[in-house]
Give the backbone structure.
Amino acid sequence: MASAVEQLAKNANWGALAKATELKQRLLFVLGALLVYRLGTYIPVPGIDPVVWKEIFESKGGGILDMFNMFSGGALSRMTIFALNIMPYISASIIMQLATSMSKNLEELKKEGEVGRMKINQYTRYLTVLLATVQAYGLAVGLESMQGSGGSAVIDPGLFFRVSTVITIVGGTIFLMWLGEQITSRGVGNGISLIIFAGIVAGLPRAVASMLELTRTGTFSVATLFMLIAMVVAVIALIVFVERAYRKVIVQYPKRMVGNQMAQGQTNHMPLKLNTAGVIPPIFASSLLFMPITIVNFADLSGSDFWAAVTRHLQHGEPVFMLVYGALIAFFCFFYTAIVFNPEENAETLRKYGGFVPGIRPGKNTADHLDYILTRISTIGAIYLVFICLLPEFLISEYSMPFYFGGTSLLIVVSVTMDTVAQIHSHLIAHQYEGLVKKSKLRGRSRRR
């Protein structure tokens, strides 16, 4: 059976896509949904002076706003209805994961299967609306206090502007949340991840054009350009290798009675991903690290010697920035892995179904064994994440390279691409299976005749 699946996977090619009608419809739906999302990133919030806001945004860059603007595909810099993008939903999902690990009621709800999962998803949506409302109101109040050389960023400040801004931005976030769920159910891949992917990739042509322009003007040499391209390719290859790496823990199931027959024992594997935390640690670390710079810029505290020193040391390429950034990534890697994978719970599940790790007693010994393995592979995953995210910082510090390819954005783009391609191949394999079944039925009928 395994060899047949592998053979089908090898034979699956993009030419079969022309015959897979359902897959074509799913891909067209994804493209249409992402097109709607990109159009929404150009619909401005009512009451904003775009020229003044562009000037203010450029003067207050370098903080958490740049990261959010990257994820939103430039929607924040244009102050559009998708200014918050899908970030409130991601924050709500992470908060619900933390709450599930700490609350017994939510943990029991999680064990109820599909019904429990739907309830947790509903709570996540409610929390998304709450977070988006708070963030949108804070954004509206902050916009009213911003002044540029051309005047205020808000044309007519007041209660009406705040209410309309909150309704507009919260509505845009809810629409993106709904659009992401539709892409997941009716398209290919994770809808939320694809929306973030589209936002990051949207800025790629401009970055490439800027890089080529710097090379044309002589700021960058051709050798430096090729060195950077080779480094990006090498980093992508490393991301692909690590993201596909698993530590397989052998699990055996003894013989047991199924009805009136004795079922043979089975040997399976419990795959433990090398990078269990994914892209969450870099996002958390960036948010915490950029927060002081954002507060200084918005509160106009640059006149203070203390805050000026903080801002100077937390700039890209500075040693303090790299040290704190790497430490935060490593911390959140272990912290988030401990949340998403519970060794005690998995050991209890194995014991309940009669499974055991060879040479390890069920129960607490199995939990300790899984925790030991998870700690070792999480150490490798943390080193990998720190290297991927700090490599651009070293380029800025040592070679003063103006082109900054973020490790977080590159990690997201490569991971989402791999997941989407894997789902497309799964659909192609399923389509080939359906074709084989139909052919076998037709041959059976022809033989009977």
About this structure: The longest helix spans residues 407-448. The beta strands are 147-148, 151-152, 246-253, 256-258, 261-263, 266-273.
